[in-house]
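Journal club prep — side note

Before the paper discussion, L.F. wants everyone to see what a predicted structure for a comparable chain looks like in token form. Sequence:
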Amino acid sequence: NAHCERCSKGVLNCNEAIRLSSNLVRVYLYRDCLKYSIRLYDHVINDLTKALIIDPSCSHAYYNGALCYIRRGNLSLAFKDFAIVLCLASTVTNSNTHY
């Protein structure tokens, strides 16, 4: 499948970027999107865990994790991650509010 082949090449490029600089959350998020598209949900969750170690306030990582948990049928963990996304969004909204 051409899509899987392109995703695999993208994952290899992300692997190289991580090898060069392992503290870039964005690279883990790119790699997790590629792995998600080829249904490697356990691998995605591993990448998201690494991204959250680097930046515990990365709402994209929690959101993507929730999507993976839904795909794996683990709704309780999906709801937990969605709740964290809402809390983080609430924090950002409140910090931007001027009275």
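L.F.'s comment for the group: The mean pLDDT is 91. Keep this in mind when we get to the figures.
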